[in-house]
Amino acid sequence: MKTTFLDPENYTRSPWKNGGGIFTDIADAHRADVPQKNWDSLLWRFASTPIVAPGPFSHMPGIDRLQMVVDGRGLVLKAPGQDFDEREPFTTVRFTGELEIVTELEAGPVEVVNLMARRGAAEIDLVALTGPGNRRLAAGTHLVYAPRGECRIRLDDENFAIPRNGTLKVELAGPFQLALVSGLAVLGSIRLLG
Description:
Layout lengths: L1 E5 L5 E4 L6 E9 L11 E10 L11 E9 L3 E5 L2 E5 L5 E5 L5 E4 L4 E9 L3 E8 L3 E5 L2 E6 L5 E5 L2 E5 L4 E6 L3 E7 L2 E8 L2
Antiparallel strand pairs: 1-16, 2-3, 3-4, 4-10, 5-8, 5-10, 6-7, 6-9, 11-18, 12-17, 13-16, 13-18, 14-15, 14-17
């Protein structure tokens, strides 16, 4: 197991692909064989962003997306023939980057967490840990993010305190046991394929 604390002061900012807002980039991975990191080289990305006004989502062909509201409420994603209901915080929705999506805000601005991956390059999962309990982690990269205040976790027999907006990056070669001891956390999991 390798653990790395990602300090919010070191997060970077980047524009949405369509220029309509700003991501706070928490962690990402890109193909190693390209000289410049960009959307074409992206393998996966974990980021947060405010959505302050209704508008279109970026068109991201080949990208699978998971999203969860972590602050505010009332977000609905409208796509042709279907809606993705995120009215309640900590509900995960899954959609593809090809979908034409427009946001609807029923109760004002929200803050969301996004986990994106290049289709075929990685499998991803995004869940909220809202109460004490155990969760088995598979081999891969896991990001434990504390969106609302300090949270405490235990990985097998090692304890970690993660401050508000901090993230613990956990890289595992095999299965491990994660326990949420206190607080609330968002867990993003990535398993690279091939």
